[in-house]
What does this fold into?
Amino acid sequence: MDRIVVLDFGSQYSHLICRRVREANVYCELLRHDTPARLLREIRPKGIIISGGPASIYVEGSPRPDYGIFDLGIPILGICYGHQLIVDRFGGRIRKSNVREYGSSNLVIDDNKDLFSNIKGNIRCWMSHSDTAESIPKDFEVLAHTDSSSSAAIVNRNKKLFGIQFHPEVLHTESGTEILKNFSFRISEAAPAWNMKDFLESSISEIRNKVGRDRVLCAVSGGIDSTTVAVMLHRAVGNNLRCVFVNHGLLRGGEEELVVQSFEQVLNIPLIVVNASERFTTMLRGIKDPEEKRMIIGDEFARVFSDVASKHGPFQWLAQGTLYPDIIESGVSHGPASVIKSHHNVKGLPKWLDLKVIEPLSTLYKDEVKKLAENLGVPTQLLKRHPFPGPGLAVRIIGEVNHEKIRIARESSKIVEDELMAASWYNKVWQAYAAVGDDKAVGVIGDGRLYGHIVIIRVVDSVDAMTADWVRLPHDIIEKISNRISNEVEGVTWVTYAVSSKPPATIEPQ
Ligand code: XMP
It folds into this structure.
């Protein structure tokens, strides 16, 4: 199948380039920035994109590709750092700019023969650089410019080399997708033959090659990611897969029943169910720090898996539903990216668990996983369920986790979910839940005074959990939720609504 390759020089957007090309139905993969030209000759991509990155080309030790890629005769598009790399390689000069260009700029298109085909005049483009081309190589022409970059897009048509200073992959660039399509179809002549069905088939054969006759343990939560992984693994290795569902006592109401029923009756995948509520709540006693809670839960999960492995094993592999945003936020991508924050399940497994990890979704975004899950026949009741974090209600309970706060978070969340469903809002939002902390406020319940808990309602919208906005729910729904929680959930006096977006907040409070 025709493909485009992105060489990852560490930009936070490298994977987004891949995703945009895939959205145009061309198979696209991200490879290390220093992938040998010899390997690329074997893979025979129709086009190569050199990504942006945090380095400056004139700094010693800044990352370089194998320069042999320029002799392959394959069309190349350099973006930002990639553009500067091309300029530098072919005799132009990059220097620190007097004017840093961050954000939106007006791009004037001077030549719309190929890369800017069907795009006329001026477009808004998104820039993020502080280095600029002082001079471009002599056999290159300018395709577009901005006020502060006289050569914001350049070309050497003989060598099929294109360079652009801005980022076409971000949605803030007008016609950005059109530019990437022009590179893929018009310049590289790649056929649009890639879709989720093909991804699924190639992933399944990849899993088979990797795993062979080994046995795989797959931890499922009922969430879309782990369910998708389980169904893929089941297709790939059949009975050599065992799925385990751990009830850590921090689940949403009715979760265990829903997961058991979906796996056993709908998907026909046998499930080992472990009730470990006491183990987890005992380990969490007295712990207030969010990161410490996450560590404890992660370690305890590993111990439960180890118990399951000794009882039902041996297993050689553990399958996980890690997604690309988890990896990119942890700075563990293919390239020299900066670390933003350590995220969730990417920390790795303890060595003593002695299981190799298989993560078939690690190149996908959440919305892509949803499409995959639909292809795999994952039941709608799981597909439509909002994402739920692995550490469960522990990250929605601020301060110490105890039975009372678990009950309040669980019962209040159920009310939030039920009311959104009743008002046909549940499927319109990304996540909706109730959190609780140690803050209390005075209320009057019946004739008496009650110094009770404050519950925080959080309803957010998002596309891929990288950013999120709080949802402007109609006031009557908020009112109904508030009334029901203070009437029905014992020990609650006040209900508040969280109006913070991500960034600067995160979706979960802990
Ligand atoms: P944050 O709070 O980082 O959450 O904005 C982004 C998305 O990830 C979910 N989340 C987790 N999922 N394990 C998971 O499987 C975790 O530890 C975890 N923490 C947060 C969160 O619900 C949101 O959808």
